[in-house]
Amino acid sequence: MSTSTPLRALNVDNINQHVRSAQYAVRGELATRAESYRAQLQKGRLPTPPDEGHLPFDAVISANIGNPQELDQKPITFFRQVLSILEYPSLLDNEGVLKSELGYKQDVIDRAKWLLKQVKSVGAYSQSQGVPGIRDSVARFIESRDGYSSDPGSIFLSAGASSGVNTLMNVICSKPETGILVPIPQYPLYTATLSVLNARCVPYYLDEASAWGTNIQAIKDACEKAKAEGTDVRAIVVINPGNPTGACLPAKDIRSVLEFAAEQTLVVLGDEVYQSNVFIGEFTSFKKGLRDLQKEQPGKFDTVELASLNSISKGMVGECGHRGGYFELVGFDEDVVAQIRKFVSIMLCAPVVGQCLVEMQVNPPKKGDPSYPLYKQEYDGIKQGLQHRATALYHAFKQMEGVECQEPQGSMYLFPTIHLPPRAIAQAEKENRKPDEFYCLRLLDATGICVVPGSGFGQKEGTLHLRTTFLAPGTEWVGRITEFHKKFMDEFRS
C-alpha cells in the first residue's frame, strides 16, 4: 500500500459531481477545437494544402454563440461615448474638446453626468438590487412597452440574464425532487443549472411543424408525467423569441402558458433577451399577457408569479462582455422577494458599468436628441444586416439536400433539421459520436465554421439538427456551408 501523500486535495472524482455532470454544448468540444484552429491561424499557418500541418481555411467563423461584437458588430456610439466618460470622469474637464474635436454631443455629456450622479463611480459597489435610478429607467421602459405600471422595487439588475436565471433557480429548487418545465430544444443554461442544483429538468417539446411554437397539450402531458413520477413541478421556462429555434411566439401562445401556470400554480420564467430581435410579427411580453388576463378576468390570475428577464448582450446592443441585465418580479410573495434580495446580496452587486449600459439600452436617444440620428442609423443598420444574413442563410439551407429549415422570425439563430445518409450515421457510431455532432465536427474541420449540434439543446428522438447564428459579417461563409454539405452528402451517399 502506498504511503505517499496525495499531491492535490482535489481530483475529478471528489469534486461536486453535479458540476461534473453539467453539460454546456455552446462552449463544448467544438468551440474548444475552433479556438485551437484560430490560434493556429494567428501564428501564420495559412492554408497551403496538401501539407498536413496547415488548415483548409483562412478564418474561423464562431457561429456557435450569440456574441455579436466578436463577429465584428460595431458598438453603438452613444453607449461607448457615455461609458468613456463614466470610466474617466476627468474628460468632463474638457467638454469643449469632447464636442468640437471628438464628436461628443451634448446629450452624451448630460447622460454621463446623470449616471455619475446615480453611481458616484463605476468602480464602487452599488446596492445589491441595482442602482435605484437605473431601476427607475427600467420600470419606465417596461411601462412604455406594455402599457402597464412597473415597480422599480420589483426590478433586480443582474450580471446578464444568466445571472438572473441562476438566482431564480437557486431560490426555486429546494430539493432533488424539484422540477422545472424546460422547452426542448432549449438554451443549455437551464439544464446545466438544474444539473448543478441537483434538480430535475422536465422537458416539453416545441412544435417544429408550427414554426417551433408551444404546444400546450405537450406541456400538460409533460407536467402530468413528471408529477406521476414523483417530481414536484414548480416552474415553467419559456424562451421568447426562441433560442435555439428563432421562433417568436404569438400572443395566444403566451396566454395559454399563463393560463396553464395559473391552473398548476407554477412560476413562469420568461426569458425575453431577444425581444428586440424580431423579424416577423411582433414581440408580446409575458408581463403584458399577464396584465391583459388580469384585466379581463379579475381575481383569477392575481397570484400568478412571473419573472421576466432581459439582457444587454443581445438585441442591437450586443454588449456581452459588459455583463448587464435585469429581471422583474410580478406576483411574488414579499417574504420570497426578501430572500431573493438576500441571495443577490451574497454576490454584492452586478457590474456597475453593465448596469449603466442597461440604463442606456432601455432609455436610448430619442427623436429630437442630438445623438438620435446616428443612433438610429447604427441601430437600424445592425438590425437590417442581421435580417439580411438570416434570410441568406435560410435560403441556403432550403436548397441543401436533406435539410429543412423554418423561416427566421427572430433572435439570432436558425435551427435546421438535417437528414444524414445511413453511412454517415454508421461512421458517427464508429467514432462514438452522435450523428449531428459528427456532422458539425466535419463542417468545422473543413470550413472553419463552428456551429452547435442539435443534441446539445435537446431534440426529439430520431431527429437531427444544428444551431447556427447569423451574426458573422457578409454572406461568403454561407457558401462554405453549402459547398461542404454537398461534398459530405456525396461522400456518404449509399
Give a verbal description of the structure:
- The chain has 494 residues and is α/β, with parallel strands linked by helices.
- The chain contains 17 helices and 14 strands.
- The protein has helices at 17-21, 29-42, 77-87, 95-100, 106-119, 132-146, 160-172, 189-196, 216-228, 251-264, 286-296, 334-346, 352-362, 372-399, 422-430, 435-447, 476-492, and strands at 61-62, 155-158, 178-184, 200-205, 232-239, 267-271, 306-311, 325-330, 403-404, 413-414, 417-418, 449-450, 452-453, 466-469.
- Strands 2-8-7-6-5-3-4 form a 7-stranded mixed sheet, with helices on both faces.
- Helix 3 packs across helix 5 (106-119), helix 3 packs antiparallel against helix 13 and helix 15 crosses helix 16.
- The longest helix is centred in the C-terminal third of the chain and has 28 residues, at 372-399.
- The termini are far apart.
Shape: globular
Count of discrete alpha- or pi-helical segments spanning 4 or more residues: 17
| Straight-line N-to-C gap | 56 Å
Largest sheet: 7 strands, mixed
Q: Give average pLDDT, whole number.
A: 88
Strand proportion: 5-15%
Largest sheet, order of strands side by side? 2-8-7-6-5-3-4
The low-confidence runs, each spanning 5 or more residues with pLDDT under 50, are: 47-51
